[in-house]
């Protein structure tokens, strides 16, 4: 009997190795509402700390630093309470700013834009132990985000393709799928297969709203998440207000899911719209928010996959074209807004930044509806069809105010501005960490049931948190989960730890 039990265990061990999976990991019970700061490191001020990634083999944290010189700082994480920079990898030989990094199996991938942002960018792969360059891969213009698939077989890159200030050059947005085992061969995907669907997609909330209203140029991929089985990826199309699905097996874009609009004229969605009313007061207003998400994450639950988005909102602001104005400077339709004169005062909606490309429904030069940037929330969507299953409504604003973290100076422009989101397993719970760029904070939610997230805590961070990285206990140097937050306006990297139960 003992021999049979031993044989079964041996079989299970080798089966796990053959399938390249880990044996069942020991659960480390922690309190996800107890995260506190244990370390802080200043990498050099504005632009010096944006995105980080962690290599569990070398116990090194790699941080994007576009401060005085474009580089990746390498931080010793062996003792997370005492972190130090031990090396820097210069990005100067490769082009302009480095925008994103990710690690898998001893490889560090960096997304680097060209000095001329409208020209093709690069993904550069380095060895995490020696820092030696392993490969340079040409990708689309302005690669803004890079991520490995969980199985390490693919590197994916979202290239925004932003226009030049004069709009004399406006590259197509694209997504690159790089096959690691195939000598890093890259497949570049654009959205040409959906051009014929533009009218139908626009009716559902897709925005094609640049200077030239060009379908391929106005779609600007922002952020990518990959399914746990490494077969599907989803990318946010921020300015276009949509999410695209990508089949990694066939290397094709299979769907564009417009996200529609959020109705701020509901009590549960009440917001503060003025930075000049000398108070923080949330109220319903006859306004629609365009979700326009930045970061995205995914989680499977009961056989379904759900997508989590940080609904930051964004504008186009170039010399040749700007798509927003203060509401006080536009004409409102008299029938739709009979109280237009009062609404246009600073104490009401006058200070609100609105999108000028949306709202003139009958094309007569005045605005029949008001659209603002972002949802001031995070949302959960059904990955199969883009249906909204949860929105945090105005809870991020309310909690920030309760904790004296709400910046009333941003009430007229996206309020707390949710930008980053990541999900990690803490003990037996799935936890979402939402980065709030203008509240300088992280909101923590229990999302074990993705259709009903529960607020747990909000913690103070550095100025304008850009990167939120979760290190699970199984990969942590101290066998406890860690949260790493990097902030672009002050160059701080902060480490947070939860209490063990």
What does this 3D model show about the protein?
- With 501 residues, this protein is mostly beta strands.
- It is 8% helix and 41% strand.
- The strands form nine sheets. It has a four-stranded antiparallel β-sheet with strand order 1-33-32-31, with no helix packed on it.
- A hairpin with a 4-residue loop joins strand 15 and strand 16 (242-247).
- The longest helix has 17 residues, at 2-18.
- It is globular and about 65 Å long.
- The two termini are 37 Å apart.
- Residues 1-23 have low confidence and may be disordered.
Which helices and strands appear, and what pairs or packs with what?
Layout: H1 2-18, E1 30-42, E2 52-55, E3 60-66, E4 70-76, E5 84-90, E6 98-104, E7 107-112, E8 120-127, E9 133-141, E10 143-148, E11 154-159, E12 174-179, E13 185-189, H2 198-203, H3 215-218, E14 221-226, E15 232-237, E16 242-247, E17 252-258, E18 261-263, E19 288-290, E20 296-301, E21 304-310, E22 324-326, H4 340-343, E23 353-355, E24 371-373, E25 378-382, E26 388-391, H5 395-402, E27 418-426, E28 429-436, E29 441-446, E30 454-460, E31 465-471, E32 482-487, E33 492-500
Parallel strand pairs: 19-24
Antiparallel strand pairs: 1-33, 2-3, 3-4, 4-5, 6-7, 7-8, 8-9, 10-11, 11-12, 12-13, 14-15, 15-16, 16-17, 18-19, 20-21, 21-25, 22-23, 25-26, 27-28, 28-29, 29-30, 31-32, 32-33
